[in-house]
Amino acid sequence: MKPCNVLVLPGWHGSGPTHWQSRWEQRHGYRRVEQHDWDRPLRGDWLARLEDLVLACDEAPVLVAHGLGCIQAAAWAATSRNAARVKAALLVAPLDVERDELRPQLPTWSPIALDALPFTSVVVAGADDPLCDPQRARMLAAAWSAQLVNQPAGQHLNADSGLGSWPEGHVLLQDLMKD
Question: What is the residue range of the signal peptide feature (predicted)?
Fold first, then answer.
């Protein structure tokens, strides 16, 4: 699989230089789905941008989402006629945008799309994630028909959680990329 067909979907506020997604982009040549506004994300804009990049791929892409990017992938798959073009998705630390403290900050993102994803998917969730508790992560994985991988004592699985380049996560991605 060509690295340019691995689409990286950062979460709310983007992924900084020490985030595992940024490290994977630099090390492996994966392509970031850039957004016009990382701080005030509009669902429709983010879905349109993902649609454009999926259609630009010359083979079935694999999505690598984090946080709000997981919610973006699910919303896009529920509304796009092109979702079957995607080979697989690694959905890491989904952001529970339906939490009371997040709804006002991300008003266009509720409700979360709960349709089964039409591609192979793995949800990776931290056992101590303050932005998506384990019960919600299980519910999202089940709704999306995704395999759930629990990170014991893992928090939000971002740059602040000390993952570095997160080689264990990259092994999960490589498994999804296989034919």
Answer: none
Q: Tell me the pLDDT tens digit for each residue of 110-125.
A: 999 999 999 999 999 9
For the chain, the structural domain boundaries read: 3-177
Phi-psi category of residue 14: left, alpha or beta, with phi > 0 → left and psi -120 to 50 → alpha = left
Q: What is the DSSP letter of 150?
A: E
Q: Is residue 92 helix, strand or coil?
A: strand
Read off the pLDDT of residues 45-104 as tens digits, 9 standing for 90 and up. Answer: 999 999 999 999 999 999 999 999 999 999 999 999 999 999 999 999 999 999 999 999
5 closest CA partner among 172, 171, 177:
177
Q: State the residue for tokens 């789905």.
A: 33
Burial category of 178 from C-beta neighbours within 10 Å (exposed 0-12, middle 13-18, buried 19 and up):
exposed
Token digits for 176?
């999804």
